[in-house]
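Chapter review: from sequence to fold.
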Amino acid sequence: MVALAQTPPSADRLRAIDEFLAQAWADQVRHDERLRDLTVEVRFDRGVAHLSGDVAEPAQLRLVRDLVGRLAGVYGVWCRVGIGGRAPVVVDLGCGPTKQWSSNLGLDIYPAPGVDAVADLSGSLPLADNSVDVLFAVHILEHLIDFLPLVDECHRVLRPGGVLHVMSPWWGHVNAVADPTHVRLMDVQTFKGICQLRPPGTPRWYPLHAGCDGASIFADLTPLPPDADPAPQSHLARFFD
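The token string follows.
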């Protein structure tokens, strides 16, 4: 049984968690030879790990993501890491004036500083198939009556091994209902449904990480090809009831 926090941690506790995580990761790097020569910076902000830098091959990035995600207290693992010298293509969906990284491509339904292209996120994304490495959907899904078409579009545009990072208000926190433009309530279990309960023939996802801090939920999902095995129950048990 996965327990969800009922009360969000205070700002002081979040700072203490970040300090703990930074020290824990530094210890991990010192004792794991696989990590010592990798040029990946890991920064923790309110329990979310932010990865940047460059690796030689995808397996190295998968290793770092997995090990960071195993640290107690990590809610999400957000990534902007190049592979083999190629900078990742990163898109912020519904970014408004604020992007997760300033160099990301910003899409929003309204023009604003930082918005690179105007797009209705309830329809087709103006992006080619298999063209994006990382998608951010931060405080977006709760604004859509039916967010599954957008999730399916994300699956279409992500490259193999790409990641969709989601952050939304947790249904049990006042932030979920305080904004009258929120039309959906979200829970970590919502992403179990996205990964496991969709009808045959719909795009399939593998959960890399999921968590809740008592105010927000986080999910990092990677697209699965049609013939891939689903996530094993032992992996799902890390995140879901």
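Two observations follow directly from the output. DSSP finds six helices and ten strands in the chain. The longest strand covers residues 158-169.
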